[in-house]
Structures are given as C-alpha cells and as structure tokens.
Amino acid sequence: FFNTAKYPCLFILNHIDKYLSILYYEFRDCENNNKYKILKRRGVFNMVKILFEKDLCLGCKTCELACAAAHSETKSLAGAIKENKISRLRIRTKGGKLKLEQCMLCANPRCIAACPTGALSKDKESGIIKVNKMACTGCGLCEDACPFGAIELHTFPTMCDRCMHSGKPLCAMSCPTRALKVKIV
User: Fold this and answer.
1) Interior angle at CA 167, CA 165 and CA 173, nearest 5
2) What distance in Å separates the CA atoms of residue 70 and residue 67, rounded to the nearest whole number?
3) Any idea what the Cα angle at residue 145 is, between residues 142 and 149, rounded to 5°?
4) Could you give the CA distance from residue 1 to residue 26 in angstroms, rounded to a whole number?
5) Which of 17, 83, 101, 182 has the smallest number of CB atoms closer than 10 Å to its CB?
6) CB count, 10 Å around CB of 76?
C-alpha cells in the first residue's frame, strides 16, 4: 500500500467491521477530500474498475506519465524514461473525441483464449490479467484479440494491473480534473 512518508496527503485507515466480517483500507486524499476504499472480504479483494469521464478529460496525459513512473524501478518519471517504461493505459483521440484504452477485466478475456502458450492468466481475486514471462513468446496474438486495444506488446504484453503493487490506481490519483475515478466492484 502507500508509503505515507512519500505521499504525505494520504491517510490510510484500516477498518474492521466485526459484524460484516469486512476488512477494508480507506485512502483519504486530504487535498481533495476524496476517499478510496479497497475492500477485502473473506480473504478476497474486490475488483477495481477505473471509470473515465471524457467530458472532464483535458487530454494532458498526466495519467499516462504517472502510470509509467509507477511501473519503473525508481518510481519516478526520469526513471521511467531511462528504463523505457510505457503507460499501461492510454488516452487516444478517435473521431475528435477522447477515449481511454485500458484493460476492462473481461469475464471471458479473449486475450487469454488467443494465447497459444497459456502465458496469460486471470487472477481470481482481483480480475487482473497476469503474464508469465517465461511462457510468453511475444507473438502478439493477445494484442490482436483484445477488443479494447488495451494490450501493447513491448517484448511482453503490457496491460493495466490497477497498480496492485501500490494498492490504488495512481493514474486516477494524478488526474488534475478527476476524469478518472476508481470504483470497487
């Protein structure tokens, strides 16, 4: 989860509801007074969806920069550039309108079905698509199969993992207009 020394405006509150057997972590962004929760019920994390409000989006791509930085070794933009990291979600313009391309956590992902080596799998707890780099050949069939354009092939397939290593999608936190919102499903 978040390092509060690195993110001083985030408060992490652990709550245990003894009657409902729910453990959840609440992230409170004190600058904007937004609250984010990640629920854990009976040892299972709920799926995290990222919602896109295109009317609020400026097309500034701050979310893409935050994503690339979050997945770099140094967790910095300079490190992401040096390591040649890419964003796992993309803001594109189609027909003069902004569109978000990201993994939609499909119930029956076509990318997994298209993979000839079985290198892709879906995490049962979070719904995130995982890549077994040892089994992946880099053929690109998963990229072609995805109806949302969510996969980019750079040696290995990359797709949005909802920042599971951080506990909160950093793209949504970095958006200056809050065009990206987190919803727990």
Assistant:
1) 110
2) 5
3) 90
4) 11
5) 17
6) 14
Q: Which residues pair with residue 24 across a beta bridge?
A: 15, 39
**Strands of 86-135, DSSP E:** 90-94, 97-101, 120-122, 129-131
Kindly state the helix (H) or strand (E) to which residue 170 belongs, with its residue range: helix 170-174
Tell me the pLDDT tens digit for each residue of 64-115: 999 999 999 998 999 999 999 999 999 999 898 999 999 999 999 999 999 9
Contact 112, 103 (CB under 8 A): no
Q: pTM of the prediction?
A: 0.72
- H or E element in which residue 111 lies: helix 110-114
Q: H or E element: which one contains 120?
A: strand 120-122
Q: Which residue has the higher pLDDT, 13 or 184?
A: 184
Q: Is residue 63 within a helix (H) or strand (E), and if so which, with residue range?
A: helix 62-70
Amino acid at 100: L
Residue 46: pLDDT band by 50, 70, 90 thresholds?
Answer: low
